[in-house]
């Protein structure tokens, strides 16, 4: 009896042991990425969604957009300048980065540069002892906001402009000042504007970009051609309805008007990750003008849907006035803008729904189930279909008894593994309510009317490899009144 009990026990033990060895509970691995991929700085940039631009300088005092370069520095006197007000406005509106015009085309420098006296040094503001860049940096830091800078290559004041080597040396000397004196700079903004007096002078972009990267390791360089962030191709804040973060850098050149269409849509075959930034002003002009008013809330929301909602970052210009403060009307409008975005997107009407999909990678315990689209991680947890799935791929939100009522659909791809989706359709109870091409980090659809449905299905019609969806949202936008409703 004792012997029998012993051998039984051994058999059981062996079986338990064998089971443990032959059935290891390894987690399913993530799918391979599809190149190109974003850098960590580009990912950080993408998640900002909103960046504030501040155009400020002598033009603020002369009611002009492009200064001549002949402005007398004595006109620059923003007696009430308070960068803490700017940073406060930015923080409340949800901007995590502020980019300022350290020098615009007129050549007047907002910081005391060693290489010119056409700057705050020669102005009456703070008796020539002021430094607007420093004030911005200090105020932004106090609010936990990052700083970016714009240094205009075109210079209508400096005598060196047009003399190629001398001017490039001057420009680089100023870049070095800006990128070594003020701590961390997260974005630098270049345009290709050139004076008609020097059409043949080259800007040494290669030298400039190398120097920038040397001095600031995590900076994003913006220009028509990147290398980190590309221009969207217009100044209306509107990306293409197809908008790839990928493009061929070799096909781009700075200041070339014939590539704006390509910049607007990107390239599904693009070999470089170079996402688009949409620059637009809250007012008509870039600089403050007494006669101008901020855009209407409905216009700002349209811009938001056409930029952030099309896989881009919105760079919204909010120009300080001649007192050195952001105007009350702009603050009011930004407050409305923030409140509207929060009203629309802080509630996901899909929450609590059951999520189904055509298939899931690694089965029920693989970790890639469709329920991942309702969590707060919009990058690294996602729904992935089974590798071998060839047929239609879809993911569906199944609402509760009372159904789903919404007029905005939000779809996000797990772009950390590459941008993939090329064509998709959205169905509500079997009826097509929206369709499009790219998704990218975030795609937003405002529908023709309010939809009331039990099921909402996203069908992926075409994709580079497996589609990976990181987040889905159904929202209600009370500010959206499409024509004819
Ligand atoms: C610019 O270069 C073109 C072609 O080489 C030449 O014809 C033109 O005279 C140059 N213009 C100036 C302002 O140097
Ligand atoms: C501008 O872009 C077009 C279209 O890609 C190209 O053919 C042309 O060579 C470019 N021009 C310059 C000056 O780079
Ligand atoms: C971009 O580069 C890829 C790879 O070389 C190429 O297949 C594609 O045609 C290029 N796109 C354009 C618009 O030339
Ligand atoms: C600038 O804006 C502030 C409000 O923030 C206002 O008090 C001031 O009067 C404005 N300055 C001008 C010149 O409009
Ligand atoms: C969307 O659907 C319409 C109607 O079926 C079709 O004409 C259009 O090409 C589709 N657009 C996209 C981007 O798939």
UniProtKB/TrEMBL annotation:
It is found in: Secreted, Extracellular space, Apoplast. GO terms for molecular function: alpha-L-fucosidase activity. One of its GO terms (biological process) is glycoside catabolic process. Residues 73-335 form the Glycoside hydrolase family 29 N-terminal domain. It comes from the Eukaryota. The keyword Transmembrane helix does not apply. Residues 1-22 form the signal peptide. InterPro entries: Galactose-bd-like_sf, GH, Glyco_hydro_29, Glyco_hydro_29_N. One of its GO terms (cellular component) is apoplast. Keywords: Apoplast, Glycoprotein, Glycosidase, Hydrolase, Secreted, Signal. Its EC number is 3.2.1.51. Belongs to the glycosyl hydrolase 29 family. This is alpha-L-fucosidase. It comes from Tetracentron sinense.
